[in-house]
Amino acid sequence: VVFNTGLHTIKIIGIAARHLVAKAEVEAYMKGKGVPLTSLIVPTPYEDLLGILRPLPAGQNNRWLAIPMGITSLDMISVDDVGDIVRVIFNNRTGHLHKTHSVCGDKQTIKEMAQILSRHLSPLYFQDKQVTIHDYQQLNCQFPWSQDYANMFDFYLRVDQRFNVDATQRISPSVRIRSFEEWVQANAGRLKKAFS
């Protein structure tokens, strides 16, 4: 089994990001049952910009990225690249069995992400809104996941993440893991349409 796990935020710092806690609990259960397991800790998918992390309108062609990371880099990866990594793991099952891999395609600050989006999605212009964890939760309070995601970002800011782009590339040397900028370039049409 290849399982997308998460770190147990309650056990580590005492805050609940239920989607991460649930993954950690399921992983612990499978390990306890002796399931042959390879675990992947997957960071924020680039594709979340089309959903949960969708930029906010801020005028005709202006958009805000309201992601509460301050000046800390956000670890990210493309969902397609995760699929390629899983394929590599399945093709070398014994080499990855009973291991946990933290995979990552890129690390960018929100300001850097805004610059990349602005460069490739002109005339749209993106800026880092510089929101706090509390601001983020309030902006999304109409959604049932708002507190969990606010806590997840709080966790990301307070606990050193183990993601490493080079280590990810070593897991699957035959697969080119795309940077955020490469992903934006490849998906520029779809992103422009979604954000317009």
From TrEMBL:
NmrA-like domain mapped to chain residues: 17-169
Matching InterPro entries: NAD(P)-bd_dom_sf, NmrA-like, NmrA-like_oxidored
Keywords: NADP
Pfam family, one: NmrA
GO cellular component: nucleus
Family membership: Belongs to the NmrA-type oxidoreductase family.
Listed name of the protein: NmrA-like family domain-containing protein 1
Natural source organism: Magallana gigas
